[in-house]
Write a structure and sequence with these properties.
4-stranded antiparallel sheet; 17 strands; alpha+beta; 5-stranded mixed sheet
Length: 598
């Protein structure tokens, strides 16, 4: 993966005509990368160190190297006397003055001695001038720096050798030195990226995969010999840094709440420019850094096969430490093509294509959510497939793990899925909250995984809005990859029948007393047999009251599959509960010829 990032950085450095032998062109950061710091305050002196005042100016990209900015530690100075202004006094003392003092400690020169002295002497006046000028920019982000006037020439921090030398030392010191334990990890070896021999460092952690000061993070690793475990030369470190900068700008996105790097690996480097242009264009078309609910479009873009390449998805958390939460490596375009095709296929099955949302009133947050998952929001119909549904059932850690399984084409634990599905559905049922949408989502996930051969089975699908009771066997045949046992069919049909009974009760009485007989959806074989018996008895009572036959053909079909299922059921209790809930959720998709009550 790091080799791929280095290749990107190498291309960008060449394209932008930066000099790999001049580390400043790579190490210096843009203080206005987020376009929030558009004003510069310049603490200005003449060539004889006479204080001239604080002057304002507008930020321009041509000043990036001259400003020589790079963020330092939170409690220390930045790497040069250029910083983002917070409170005038704190920024001046802790950042500007401290940076000059730090540079002087590294290498004392007459210039730095005089500069430190005049900054201390004029401290109060400078701070007061900053405060006055800041009043003109109450809501603007401000960059604070030093400049010097020599005739008509203005000299910036980045023009001064003392600051440039210190900057390079400080910016690259972290590649081999760590204050804790006084660790110095560098030596002569072979770089793990370019395989060239020379001076290599052992603490380069642009992605911070490990921290050697925490015992046990890397087994058997001696801090001072870290360069033997992960040796990297300065040039490759700079290539990786530049590559990471590119990823941060163009290919760092959000995916269902997770930070994600999309990292291309091109086998023939002459095509890397074409690949990066394509990915940049994709990012522009998306128009957002949040790729949640856009996986179908993402997979379509990454499925193009004209250039032989791999893609790595690196999910991570970035705080005090950089932590990779999931890495999905070397994904081929053909795999993305398969994922795209199966998403499209499952979305067009009739049970999802003609899905209708029953919710009447929606909050603003709910409206935004349903716009992302429904094909036709205005008519509240058509359920789209979203990988984020998995997260709704299993939480983020399992979501990322299952995402790795799906994209990498590995096998998944069917029973873990069922347990997760019914746990969510059962919780909603017990609270008397609508669970139908969750059931549809879960079934969509199962069919998607079956079609990918991640779960066993075969799905034909359909294009039907609903099924007549006479067509129930056709439904089971169309989805036989899931309904592969008679006991599954029996429990599913019983769920349909029970939900129709509940609807009938609500229509007649304004309540659903039979719901109390469903054991909170904690079912087993004996309980579903009891539910069937009680449901038949209740329907017979209503038939006598109303002189109407209720769901006769459906009842016969349930009874038929109870007989076919026999006594040797191979379903877990959670499977029984899940399939029953699925039948309840889909009950309105099954009808009699003369109407629902036939």
């Amino acid at each position: 993966m790091l080799s791929s990032v280095a290749a990107i950085g190498k291309y960008i450095i060449k394209k932008e005509e930066k000099d790999i032998n001049n580390p400043l062109s790579i190490l210096v950061e843009n203080p206005n990368i987020d376009n929030k710091y558009n004003i510069i305050f310049k603490i200005t002196f003449d060539e004889n160190f006479n204080y001239l005042g604080v002057f304002d100016d507008s930020f321009d990209k041509s000043l990036i190297l001259k400003l020589l900015y790079k963020k330092g530690s939170a409690r220390g100075a930045d790497l040069s006397p250029t910083s983002k202004l917070t409170e005038p006094e704190k920024t001046f003392k802790n950042k500007i003055l401290k940076a000059v003092s730090d540079a002087k400690k590294y290498k004392e020169t007459e210039f730095l001695k005089k500069l430190e002295q005049v900054l201390k002497e004029k401290e109060k006046q400078i701070i007061e001038d900053i405060k006055k000028l800041k009043k003109r920019y109450p809501n603007e982000g401000i960059i604070l720096t030093l400049t010097f006037k020599r005739g008509n020439e203005e000299i910036y921090v980045g023009d001064i050798e003392e600051f440039k030398e210190y900057f390079i030392y400080k910016a690259t010191m972290d590649y081999y030195y760590m204050k804790t334990g006084n660790v110095v990890a560098k030596g002569k070896g072979v770089c793990s990226i370019c395989n060239k021999e020379g001076e290599v460092f052992g603490l380069f952690r642009e992605f911070k995969f490990y921290t050697i000061d925490k015992i046990g993070n890397v087994s058997g690793l001696k801090p001072n010999e870290a360069w033997k475990t992960f040796p990297i030369c300065l040039k490759c470190a700079l290539y990786i840094k530049e590559g990471k900068n590119y990823l941060d700008e163009h290919l760092r996105v959000k995916f269902y709440g997770n930070d994600l790097y999309i990292i291309p690996k091109v086998l023939d480097e002459k095509y890397i420019g074409d690949v990066l242009k394509r990915l940049e264009k994709m990012a522009e078309e998306f128009g957002t850094k949040d790729y949640s609910y856009r996986e179908k479009k993402l997979f379509e873009n990454l499925s193009k096969k004209d250039i032989y390449m791999y893609i790595t998805f690196m999910f991570f958390k970035e705080g005090n430490d950089f932590k990779i939460t999931q890495m999905i490596e070397d994904i081929l375009p053909s795999r993305f093509a398969k994922l795209y095709a199966e998403i499209d296929r499952v979305e067009n099955y009739g049970i999802f294509k003609y899905f209708k949302l029953k919710y009447k009133k929606l909050s603003k947050k709910e409206r935004e959510y349903f716009k992302n998952i429904l094909k036709n929001f205005d008519d509240r119909e058509g359920l789209r497939f979203r990988l984020g549904y998995i997260k709704e059932f299993f939480g983020n850690e399992d979501f990322l793990r299952l995402l790795n399984i799906i994209i990498s084409n590995k096998k998944v634990d069917y029973y873990q899925l069922i347990n997760g599905f019914i746990s969510k559905i059962r919780a909603k049922f017990v609270k008397d909250e609508p669970f139908e949408l969750s059931a549809y989502k879960s079934f969509m996930i199962l069919l998607f995984l079956i079609n990918l051969n991640i779960l066993n089975g075969e799905i034909m699908g359909d294009n039907k809005e609903y099924y007549l009771y006479d067509e129930i066997d056709e439904f089971f045949n169309n989805y036989k990859g899931f309904f592969d046992r008679d006991e599954k069919k029996c429990v599913f049909l019983l769920g349909i029948l029970v939900n129709k009974l509940l609807s009938l009760q609500y229509k007649k009485r304004g309540s659903k007393p039979f719901q109390s007989k469903l054991y909170g959806l904690k079912l087993d074989k004996k309980r579903v047999e009891y539910i069937f018996k009680e449901a038949i008895q209740k329907l017979m009572e209503y038939e006598q009251e109303d002189n109407t036959l209720y769901y006769k053909k459906l009842r016969e079909k349930v009874a038929e599959y109870f007989v076919k299922a026999g006594d040797d059921w191979k379903l877990t209790n959670n499977e029984i509960s899940y399939i029953f809930s699925l039948g309840m959720a889909m009950s309105d998709r099954f009808k009699g010829k003369g109407g629902d009550e036939e």
